[in-house]
Structures are given as structure tokens and as C-alpha cells.
Amino acid sequence: MLIPVSELIVRFMARLGIDTVFGIPGAHILPVYDALYDSDIRSVLVKHEQGAAFMAGGYARVSGKIGACITTAGPGATNLVTGIANAYADKLPVLIITGETSTYIFGKGGLQESSGEGGAIDQVALFKGITRYNKIVERTDYLENVLNQAAKILLSDQPGPVLLSFPYNIQKEQADAGILERIETKRRPRPTIDASQPVRELAEMLVTAKHPVIVAGYGCIRSGAQDELARLSETLNIPVTTSLKGKGAISEQSPLSLGSLGVTSSGHAYRYILDHADLVLFLGASFNERTSYVWDGKLLAGKRVAQVDHDFEQLEKVFKADLAMAGDIKEVLGGILAHLDSHDADAYEQLRGEIDRSKAAVTSDYAIFQSGFSLIERFFHELERRCPDNTAVFDDNIIFAQNFYNVSSGNRYYPNSGVSSLGHAIPAAIGARFTDARTTFAILGDGGFQMCGFELMTAVNYAIPLNVVLFNNGTMGLIRKNQYQQYRQRYIGCDFVNPDFGLLAQSFGVAYKKVETAADIDDLFERYDLDGAVNLIEIVIDKDLFPNYSSRR
Questions:
Q1: Which parts of 38-137 fold into alpha helices (H)?
Q2: Is 305 exposed, middle or buried (0-12, 13-18, 19+ CB in 10 A)?
Q3: Is 298 helix (H, G, I), strand (E, B) or coil?
Q4: Taking the mean position of all CA atoms in its chain, how far away is CA 191?
Q5: Which domain CATH number covers 262?
Q6: Do both 210 and 265 map to the same domain?
Q7: Residue 302 in 3-state DSSP?
């Protein structure tokens, strides 16, 4: 049966399990939008295409399914770049559908043309470095191959963004609907590992080490290994620290949690590893610039190192390991646990004492926040206490939550990783809310808010509950901090004037709360509907108060 290519695209999306697509229509993509009208796929109209890309990424990150966004040609596609770069860095499965001018005017200077012909914008070149696959489909005779390749990447263990651009006339051509039956759109199961020699060797390393420490990364969360990690920690009395992105891999309320490791953290995990560890086991943690204290050689010096990661390319990427193995972390930990006995109670109490003394010994040189941030600390304390589970936090600011927010095993924390673009938290949280009904917070600074604040109206338009926590200091805080520390307080390009956020919230039709005292925080959690409404929460901080760390930039 022959059907329009526009309808085939929509059916292809549905077979991939896509149920929501974020975007903005334009003339060159209207045939696909018209086909969406008769489908079960929900179309979400955003305020800017960058927001669509961030929403698709947030949807994919939380659900584990394929996120999708759709735009028109030219600026519709180019506005996606930052959001797609973010998804590429985070290896998120995001399908991007864009329109294009008709093929018969390629190279003639058509409006919004992106074919690369005749001096036009070259969309393939533009997206080449931030997509796993990118194709302008100029004919229908190879459409089956294109869709097969797209599906293969989106459903793989190492996914990433895939961009398919369809010229207007191609969208209106007829294609055989039977193509869809020949495209593999089912996720292949991950291969199981053989819990043999490498797993036994790793178990032996852990048992014989006097002071092992686990560094857990996002790979633990991605593989669903939180329970196995907690059992391993408790069975062998192993302290666990996490990367920023791995916060929540183990409950940070556990006595064996060292909190988060990294240059913007308290320094507790750093000091403990430096002073005590003889074996460091990395589980799905890449040991990037932030986690490694810019690859501080002292951190692993004189210690045995083991690494497990589902991505072979991450093994020994930045350090040499005594044992490195590729495999599913959940299965590896299960294999280790099968070889172990329960923990020694006396050793457990001794270890807790060491951890407590280590926390107390962290000097002011490592204290990120020495004074002036009590309201923010109180906010995160109350968030932790009053929302102990079923809560998701999308965080652009990062440094406050890294130090003040203990993520429970029942909550989810999504720091702005990827390319760390300002303006990410609000649209990513909105995208996530379309697939996950958890109470959701988007946390960001006032600079980031002004890049994406209008996406609040997307939440309003679709009645998506969301709590936006806005830190207002009237400056680009990281830039001002660096200029204070390294450029003799020569402030330039960092300060700005904010709108009245109360009036802005009123114009949006959302609830507003300004936090200036501890009592305001109590009032926020006691009186405001944080589960079912859209709320803008402003916390005012002093622009001349800075966290005590150097970003070395």
C-alpha cells in the first residue's frame, strides 16, 4: 500500500515507541504535522526550538525511551544546535525531524534552504559533530535504509541524536508502507556477561583490600544497579562516593555515603580517598574534569584501581587500571555479591568512626561555603526532609545541590551535564514531566532563566506541574567569581538588571514565592501546591558571595 512519506515518518515514530514530540511547525514541515493530526503521538508546541531539543533530551533521560523533536527548515533546524549538542554529549536517544525546501530548488537560493548547494547553509555539516547519524532524504528509493540506520542507532546501547531532514516535495511523495515491516524497531537485549574470571578477580580485590572505596557514576543509575551497589557497600563495609551525575546511585543518607566527589564539593570524599583508600573501584564513572579535581594525580597515586563500565571506550580513558572490564554494572555487581559473605559488625562500626572523623577533619581550605548561603542550605534541607521520595530535580546551578542536597534512593537528581548550557533546567524538566509524574523542581540562576524563561508558558499551556527555583543575584555568578579570584575584581560582562519576577509570574498566570527568610521556606513547603501547580520560587542571594573553590579557568 502506498502512503505519503509524511505519514510513513509518523508511523515510523510510533513504531519506535515515540508518544510525544516537541517542536514548532513551519511551512516546510507541515505535511508531517498534518500526518501527526491523525496519529496518537502528542504534539507539544514550545516557545523556541532550543527548548524543544532540551525537552526531548529531558524526556529521553528520564524515560529511557526515544525523545523526539520536530522543526522546520533553516532557523528551525539551526535553533536546535545547543540542545542537540547537549543530547549528544549525554548519549541520549533523540530523533530530530526537520523540513527542507523542495529538491527542485536546491541551489537556487530558496527561502530557509539548508541543502548546502549553491552557497546555502549546509545542515549536514552543521550537525555532523553533534549527531550519530544525519541525513537529508532527497529520494524515496533508499528511505528504507535510512530508517533502518536511524532505528539501529536510537535503540543501541550507545545511542545519540539522529537527524532526518525531509524536503517538502519528498514529504508529499508516495512510498510503500511495507517498508515499516522491514525495519527493526525493537530494542535488542543487552548481551549478558560471563561472571567468571574477571568478576571473581574483582571480588578478590575488594575482599583483600583494607580500605576500598567505590566511586559510582551515572552508569550505575543507567543500569539500574542501585540496590546491588547498596548491598555491596553494606556487605563489605565499603564507603561510596559518587560523581555529580551519579548522585543518588546510593542513598546519600547512608552512613557509608561519602557524598559527591568533585572540585565543587565539600572535599570530604577527596580527603577520605587521599588519606585512607588503598583500592578505588570506579563503577560507570568517567573520572572527568569535575570529578577528578582536574585529574589531580595525588588522588589515585599509590592505590590499586579497578574499573567497570558498560562502554568499552571509557575503560582506562584517563587512568591506568589494575583491572578494567566492560559489562553491565548491575550484572557485574550481582556476580560479585554471589561470592561474598555478610559484613563484620565490628568492622562496620570502626569504619563509621573513620568516616565521621574524616568529615570532621575537612579544613576550611576545603569548605566550599563558609558563610552567607544559609537560605539555600535551608531550602535543600527542607526539600530533602519534606520530599523524601518520588521527586525529580533538574539542576543547572549544580554547586549548591552537590553540597547541600542529600539525594535519597527514592528521588532522582539530574544535573546539567552534557555541554552544561545555561537555560537547560526548565525545558528539560518539562520534557521529563510528559513521561514521569514525579514532583519536579527545575533549579537555575537568573542568567539561565532569562535564556529559557518563556518555556514556563509551555508548562502553563499543557498544565504541566513544575516548581522553578530561581537564584537571583543579578549576575553571571561563575563569571563574577572567576573575575574576583583571578582577574583583580575587573568585572565585565557579568552584571545585569532583572525583571520583577513577581509581576512576571503574575503575567504568566503561575504562583510566585519570594524567599528572604527561613520562615518563607517553611511557608513554601507548607502552603504551596508543589505537586500539581506551576510555581516560580525566587531566592535572593548576594552577588558578592562566592563559593570557595577555584575552577582554574
A1: 49-63, 75-78, 81-89, 123-127
A2: buried
A3: helix
A4: 25
A5: 3.40.50.1220
A6: yes
A7: coil
Assess whether pLDDT exceeds 70 at residue 361. Answer: no
Give the Å distances, CA to CA, from 205 to 46, 200, 252, 401: 52, 9, 25, 33
Tens digit of each residue's pLDDT (9 = 90 or more) over 480-528 = 988 988 999 999 999 999 999 999 999 999 999 999 999 999 999 999 9
Q: Do residues 18 and 114 both lie within one domain?
A: yes
Distance from CA of residue 462 to its chain's centroid?
23
Look up the domain containing 255 and give its range. 197-364
Place of cell 508558558: 457
Query: Does residue 440 share a domain with residue 349?
Result: no
Do 307 and 453 fall within a single domain?
Answer: no
Q: Give the residue among 19, 30, 126 at the shortest CA–CA distance from 81.
A: 126
453 is a domain residue: yes
Cα dihedral 501, 425, 516, 383 sign: positive
From the list 170, 293, 314, the residue with the least C-alpha distance to 243 is: 293
Q: How many CB atoms lie within 10 A of CB 128?
A: 11
Domain's final residue, options 136, 152, 182 = 182
Spatial distance between the Cα atoms of 219 and 269, rounded to a whole number of angstroms: 19
Report the CATH number that the domain containing residue 67 is assigned in CATH: 3.40.50.970
Distance between CA 330 and CA 437 in Å, rounded?
26
Cβ atoms 184, 154 nearer than 8 A? no
Tell me which residue has cell 576545603: 366
Same domain, 39 and 166: yes
Closest CA to 282 of 249, 254, 253: 249
Same domain, residue pair 380 and 360:
no
Mark whether 105 and 216 lie in a shared domain: no
Report yes or no: 323 and 307 within 8 Å, Cβ to Cβ.
Answer: yes
On whether residue 264 sits in a domain, the answer given is yes
Q: For residue 356, what pLDDT band results from cuts at 50, 70 and 90? A: low
Q: Count CB atoms within 10 A of the CB of residue 537.
A: 24
- Number of separate domains in the chain: 3
pTM: 0.93
In a domain, 79, yes or no: yes
Distances (CA, A) of 522 to 191, 502, 537: 49, 19, 13
